[in-house]
Amino acid sequence: MEEHTIGEVARLSHTSVRTLHHYDAIELVVPSGRSAAGYRLYSAEDLGRLRQVLSYRELGFSLEEIAEILADPDARADDHLRRQHRMLRDRQVQTQALLSAIEKEMEARQMGIALTPAEQFEIFGTDSLGGAYSEEAEQRWGDTESWAQSRRRTAAYTKEHWTAIKSEADANLAGFADALSFGESTTGPVTAFLVEAHRSQISRWFYDCSPEMHRGLAELYVTDPRFTATFEDVAPGLAQYVHDAICANTGNAER
Amino acid sequence: MEEHTIGEVARLSHTSVRTLHHYDAIELVVPSGRSAAGYRLYSAEDLGRLRQVLSYRELGFSLEEIAEILADPDARADDHLRRQHRMLRDRQVQTQALLSAIEKEMEARQMGIALTPAEQFEIFGTDSLGGAYSEEAEQRWGDTESWAQSRRRTAAYTKEHWTAIKSEADANLAGFADALSFGESTTGPVTAFLVEAHRSQISRWFYDCSPEMHRGLAELYVTDPRFTATFEDVAPGLAQYVHDAICANTGNAER
DNA sequence: GTGAACCATGACGCGACGTGAGGGTCAAGG
DNA sequence: CCTTGACCCTCACGTCGCGTCATGGTTCAC
Q1: If pLDDT is split at 50, 70 and 90, which confidence band does A109 have?
Q2: Any idea what DSSP says for residue A114?
Q3: pTM exceeding the 0.90 threshold for the entire prediction
Q4: CA A170/CA A166 separation, integer angstroms
Q5: 3-state secondary structure of A4
Q6: A147: Cβ–Cβ under 8 A, 6 or more apart, which residues?
Q7: Rounded CA–C1' distance between A5 and C28, in angstroms
Q8: Contacts with A, B 23-82, CB within 8 Å
Q9: What CATH number has the domain bearing residue B180?
Q10: Boundary residue ending a domain (B71, B103, B126)
Q11: Which of B8, B34, B37, B141 could form a disulfide with B216 if both were Cys (CB 3.0 to 4.6 A apart)?
């Protein structure tokens, strides 16, 4: 029932008064009350919303995106928590990859072997959230360019690379398995995120993977027994589930 | 000896041509050559610098800060690598803290206990890199404000909090013990990192700990037998070692 | 020799605030 | 009652790191 002034809120939330003014102006976090003198008064509920906003901001979303996310009436608070949890785990994996890249380069330097900048970019040049999609990469699956690209890149990978790749992939797969066991719909936001992460991983480590190519890959997961086996090994029905999730989330050009 | 055009560099480095134009304009990454027609030509050295810039940018530095960092003639390439490594490890710790905060809240929600926003901010509101040092906190050790702050915060901690705190502290202490057994100097980079991590932990869980307060705390470790005992329990000479390490690494204000 | 795909230099726009300017509000103390 | 200082308000312009045209030159394959 307590109401807080803007200065108190700024201190509590480790932001600035100006930021809160801004969020009010763009109607992202609007204080539910005003004093007689026109002072903004933030309720406990307002603070809860603010915390959600700051969490998502920390994860790299734009304020506009955050507004959309929080506007979704289907998503309850724990959905947000789960999503944030997933993304933080993703960040852990990403950071870990950067760490081992640095360690690898330090090792190389100590042995007097300097990597060429091109090699360094190969390792380091993955950006933090979601990967960069090269529009110029050919669109069709089975395309020669993809294979060539994949071979060029994987040729330079060391053992450490492969273990990093494996752990990333495992984490993603575990996410899908969790979603499946939780009865998460293949059209829901959680699976959407997992699908995107999956595609991002492929793009980072192997070849620039367009949504079309991604769907082609999903097809393989249920038709090629070698792929199917790896999925079913983790959880029964997972191959089909992942396939459906990818198909459901690559139809429209979302994001 | 190879020279790259701006488009090639953009693709290699996963950035845009515009970004490279910008970096040229602000003289952050200036191509070392131009073709007869005025085309920018980037040498391997230029690419190396670009990679450094992008690494630091990924870590959240502003372009101006990056320029300063890279302008330092004392810092050789491995210094940059070490610094980046340290900051990434910091990010790992920070992300881990956020993760456990989320896990804790999910658990609380499932038991139907809603945390008040104030409590949530207490946990969540440490910002991404290194924690925000509240300038208004009094500077002197033994100060009442620190104690009050610590009591306010710890009062809200649950059993899970304490186990998390304990495991963090244990890991840090184990690091010191390793450093001691490896004959690591108290002025070396490894101990510098451990000291900083130690201070960071205190700031996060108890009170904003300035370097001055940190030195005061170190003094306690060798004078107060209760503290000394916990250290000597892990390894003989550890109390003195940690004390020396803290003193050696809080003298100058290195970022 | 003619597209198509590069490159160049402005110049404006935008998101997420920082930073005043100019002016009310509120509680404590003289 | 009046001042003082720490708050609060609303404009409004500035900054940073680019995205996005606009306009025009260059290169190269066909």
Answers
A1: low
A2: P
A3: no
A4: 6
A5: strand
A6: A207
A7: 20
A8: 44, 47-48, 50-51, 54-55, 58, 77-78, 81-82
A9: 1.10.490.50
A10: B71
A11: B141
Q: Say which residues have a Cβ less than 8 Å from residue B185's Cβ, sequence separation at least 6.
A: B191
Q: CA triplet A219, A220, A226: central angle to 5 degrees?
A: 150
Report CA B52 to chain centroid distance, whole Å.
Answer: 18
Domain assignment present for B209: yes
- Angle at which helix A6-13 crosses helix A17-25, to 10 degrees, equals 110
Cα A225 to Cα B10: distance, rounded to the nearest angstrom: 39
CB pairs under 8 A between A and B: 109
pLDDT in tens, B84-95: 887 888 788 778
Contact A117 B48 (CB under 8 A): yes
Q: What is the ipTM of this complex?
A: 0.57
Instruction: Report the CATH number at residue A35.
Output: 1.10.1660.10
Range of the domain at B28: 6-71
Q: Among residues A16, A34, A61, which one ends one of the domains?
A: A61
Instruction: Look at residue B158 and tell me if it is in a domain.
Output: yes
Q: Which two tokens stand for residue B80?
A: 């940059």
Q: Which of A209, A207, A224, A218 is nearest to A240 (CA)?
A: A218
**Regions of chain B short of the pLDDT cut 50:** 124-144, 147, 151, 155, 159, 224, 226, 252-255
Averaged pLDDT, A66-89: 82
Min Cα distance B50 → chain A (Å) is 9
pLDDT at A216 over 70: no
Residues listed for chain B: 255
